[in-house]
Design a protein that fits this description.
- The longest helix has 23 residues, at about 235-255.
- By secondary structure, this protein is of the alpha+beta class.
- The protein has helices at about 15-20, 25-40, 45-70, 70-80, 100-115, 120-135, 145-155, 165-170, 180-200, 205-210, 215-220, 225-230, 235-255, 260-280, 285-290, 300-305, 325-345, 355-360, 400-410, 410-425, 425-435, 500-505; strands at about 45, 180, 375-385, 390-395, 440-450, 455-460.
């Protein structure tokens, strides 16, 4: 018997077949990606979307009432100077009673969202109105206000009005118990982003050494009785709270997605946020996140609970697959990829800037850097005449609200904005000329800041004419790098009192050019 040998060049030989056949792995990967994309459009129960629509409307009605009736809205109306976000200088207060009318409109829109009336229009108008208030005054920045803006934008495009809404009652043709899977997962991812990036941001030297948690707990200890108060003033408590918060932020979403740890994760969520409500004044954020985290539970839970009291039955997962992706589906996937890509990249932009982001504030906002530092500062403004070397101090009290003065001293770009405002103020320039400063005037700032219990150090180069520095998104060379080390114990002078200490001891922190004889210029002089 003879055996036939295969010629490697023979088209029918195993060697040639192996060389001409495409590798199987890329095909499997490509098919898997297509299946994943098609799964985004699989119909699922829309109960959680409906639940979140109602929850969001109630939270926003309360937010509008609590945060803008009274103090916060009054700041935005009566302040002669408002700190603006870069690129949004054009956002100005409405004339007359416009701000109060806007407030009323936002309240009405919140009710419309709750009942699902003109839902998409109401949600989009609420997004525009709330974003306007958010952009109006940078001093009022809060991470959860930023989250509200994002959620309102996202919810505009989600079909959360097709059940339990007046829209569905008025227009029966839109009535549905299901929604594409991507809509639920987009909401879930948007809720997860603050948790995840909040945890990433906590991986820094200060937080891992228990600051600023030690300072906060020490200040809050008197609120609690006996043993709790004594525990709060220990470093062990600061470390426990710091590492507990870090681990919670990083692990809560994976734990709540896993069936075996879901109930434990939600119990920890309630404990975590309820503790925050007792220790810190952070508005609606704990309540919003406690209720929003429920959307990670199985999709049929809302209707299962509702079915106990009504005839409503869960829609569950519909056995209907999308076989092909049309132009519309591909466009949705592209938009989702762009939006989520930006949400994932923006929090890391502070790495493009030199220095400690908690000190320089460059790239700090819109990055979910939540409660990572406590800063106390004093910013003294001087009109300096280089030709004569003479300087006059300018009192910012007549231009800024007390809250603005308390918060802006540790934020370099806000200080720069105010310096530019002073340089362009006609009344101030006239007063300077009346006091004998007739030449070219520079606006210099001597700012001292303590961060997380460190000794105060200069934040701004006092030799720089801050009004002439470009206000842009590039790194600011006039910000003095943080060099003061984190001490074993916070600086001896109480953080609430050291600002007054600096004012009363000007020679300790005196610049070479600072005048000691002239009275500060106030708005009464102007």
């Amino acid at each position: 018997m003879t055996s036939k040998r295969h010629n490697p060049t023979d088209p029918g030989s195993p060697a040639q077949i192996a060389m001409t056949s495409p590798p199987p792995t890329p095909i499997r990967q490509r098919v898997s990606m297509q299946q994943w994309c098609r799964a985004l459009f699989k119909p699922v129960d829309n109960g959680w979307l409906v639940y979140f629509r109602i929850l969001f409307g109630i939270e926003m009605l309360w937010t509008v009432w609590k945060h803008y009736v009274g103090i916060r809205l009054a700041w935005n109306i009566h302040n002669p100077f408002l700190f603006k976000y870069y690129g949004f200088d054009w956002v100005q207060t409405l004339p007359g009673n416009g701000m109060w009318i806007l407030l009323g409109v936002l309240g009405v829109l919140s009710v419309f969202i709750i009942v699902g009336l003109l839902y998409r229009l109401s949600m989009f108008l609420f997004f525009l109105g709330f974003s306007y208030l958010f952009l109006l005054n940078q001093i009022n920045y809060l991470n959860h206000f930023y989250l509200v803006c994002l959620l309102a934008l996202v919810m505009t495009f989600l079909p959360a009005h097709q059940s339990l809404s007046l829209d569905a009652l008025i227009r029966p043709r839109i009535r549905s118990k299901v929604a594409p899977a991507w809509s639920l997962w987009l909401l879930r991812i948007q809720v997860a982003i603050p948790y995840f990036y909040g945890g990433i941001a906590k991986i820094n030297q200060d937080w891992l050494h228990g600051e600023p948690m030690y300072l906060w707990l020490s200040e809050k200890a008197h609120r609690f009785p006996g043993a709790i108060s004594e525990f709060f003033i220990t470093w062990e408590a600061a470390i426990l709270f710091s590492y507990g918060g870090l681990l919670y932020d990083l692990l809560v979403i994976p734990m709540i997605l896993w069936r075996r740890t879901r109930l434990l994760a939600y119990a920890i969520t309630i404990f975590f946020h309820m503790t925050n409500t007792q220790l810190f004044s952070i508005g609606i954020f704990p309540w919003l996140m406690m209720l929003a985290t429920l959307v990670y539970f199985p999709i049929d839970v809302p209707r299962r609970l509702l079915s106990r009291f009504t005839q409503v039955r869960p829609a569950g997962i519909i056995d209907s697959a999308v076989t092909t992706l049309g132009t519309r589906q591909k466009s949705v996937i592209a938009i989702l990829a762009i939006y989520l890509g930006l949400q994932c990249l923006i929090p890391f932009r502070h790495h493009l800037y030199p220095g400690n982001v908690n000190w320089t504030e460059e790239g700090h906002r819109f990055s979910w850097h939540m409660m990572l530092r406590t800063k106390r500062g004093v910013a003294r403004f001087f009109a300096h005449e280089p030709a004569t070397g003479r300087s006059l101090e300018i009192d910012p009290g007549g231009y800024l609200h007390d809250r603005q003065i308390q918060k802006f001293a540790g934020k370099p770009r806000m200080i720069q904005q105010f310096a530019k405002f002073l340089a362009a103020n006609t009344g101030l320039q006239n007063e300077l000329r009346r006091r004998g400063l007739t030449g070219r005037i520079e606006i210099r700032v001597d700012g001292w800041v303590s961060i997380n219990g460190r000794r105060p150090q200069r934040l701004i180069d006092p030799q720089v004419d801050l009004a002439q520095q470009p206000y842009d998104m590039w790194p600011a060379p006039w910000i003095v790098p943080l060099t003061e080390p984190l001490p074993e114990r916070p600086w001896g002078i109480n953080l609430k009192g050291w600002g007054e200490f600096l004012k009363n001891n000007p020679r300790i922190y005196k610049t070479d050019w600072e005048s000691q004889t002239d009275e500060p210029i106030s708005t009464d002089d102007v």
